[in-house]
Design goal:
Blueprint lengths: L10 E5 L4 H12 L3 E6 L10 H7 L3 E6 L5 H15 L4 E4 L14 H29 L3 E6 L12 H21 L4 E8 L12 H9 L9 H12 L10 E4 L15
Parallel strand pairs: 1-2, 1-4, 2-3, 4-5, 5-6, 6-7
Helix pairs in contact: 1-7, 3-4, 4-5
Bound molecules: nicotinamide-adenine-dinucleotide.
């Protein structure tokens, strides 16, 4: 039988791929044959435990680049390097992100700017460089931006984070319609609550409350987000442009509170 997701011969760049969702995405893409470039600001798990080492151990192909996605010049330089070294970029996953808690009154100028510098500027800079490479090689491509349910609905006390993720939603839609005709599919995944270092800020009561508000009653594991990214990175998604795919256990669809009636 034909393997419907065969990414062999493709080069994929995953920003923020050293841990959490990005690590799971890198492993998933490499598992289907892609050569994965992990572009991250810091190697959280260095050496034998790094994402690159794990992919190589499993028989896949990977390398890493030190990259701060909020630095436009560094992004252009690094993406051009990847383009040259791999004869083009086929898949780009803009996953790098940071989360700062705070309502409008609790958010400082620096916090606001940092959220936007990494989450929005970073996505924009990498997307621009990635699409430039895809266009130059003329074989299309897939861009997947990691937004959040917080980009589609307000999340109490996260003014800057929610606003930055909302910007990614419309940036995705915009690029989705601008480049679809060139065979470059730009889409997003919007994860719900996922078990990663980022969500370690939630204490147990908050966590239980959030689980109770999720129709399927649980948080996602990073691999479940990676599976959705894999789908959008594959030819199965060739006709999907500018879409935002929620992977949230039904959180955006409705609350799991059932009103009993006689
Ligand atoms: N965990 C969740 O519940 C959840 C929910 C919705 C959306 N998301 C989004 O998913 C993405 C990944 O989140 P995660 O939970 O794995 O978080 P994480 O904190 O575990 O990982 C984030 C990664 O991004 C990297 N990064 C941060 N700033 C960077 C920069 N300037 N340049 C390059 N890399 C940088 C970090 O080094 C890290 O490897 C983020 O965009 C996040 O907003 C997460």
């Amino acid at each position: 039988m034909e393997n419907v997701i065969d990414l062999s011969g493709k080069t994929a760049v995953v920003t923020g791929g050293s841990r959490g969702i990005g690590r799971a995405v890198a492993l998933a893409l490499a598992g289907q044959g892609a050569f994965v470039v992990i572009a991250d600001r810091s190697d959280w798990k260095a050496g034998d435990e790094s994402t690159t080492a794990e992919i190589l151990r499993l028989g896949g192909q990977a390398t890493s680049k030190n990259l701060d996605v909020s630095d436009a010049a560094e992004v252009d330089r690094t993406m051009a390097e990847i383009d040259q070294e791999h004869s083009g970029i086929d898949i780009l996953v803009n996953n790098a992100g940071v989360l700062t808690a705070g309502s409008v009154l609790e958010t400082s100028n620096d916090q606001w700017r940092h959220q936007f510098a990494v989450n929005v500027d970073g996505t924009f800079f990498c997307m621009r460089a990635g699409i430039r490479s895809m266009r130059a090689h003329g074989r299309g491509g897939k861009v997947i931006n990691v937004t959040s349910i917080s980009g589609l609905r307000a999340n109490p006390g996260f003014a800057a984070y929610c606003s930055s993720k909302a910007a990614i939603v419309n940036l995705t839609r915009q690029a989705g319609i601008d480049y679809g005709a060139e065979g470059i599919n730009v889409n997003s995944v919007a994860p719900g609550f996922v078990e990663t270092d980022m969500t370690a800020i939630y204490d147990s009561p908050t966590r239980r409350a959030l689980e109770a508000q999720t129709p399927n009653g649980r948080w996602a594991m990073p691999k479940q987000i990676a599976d959705a990214v894999l789908f959008l990175a594959s030819p199965l998604a060739d006709h999907i442009c500018g879409e935002v795919l929620a992977v949230d256990g039904g959180w955006l669809v409705g609350t799991p509170v059932r009103i009993e009636s006689d």
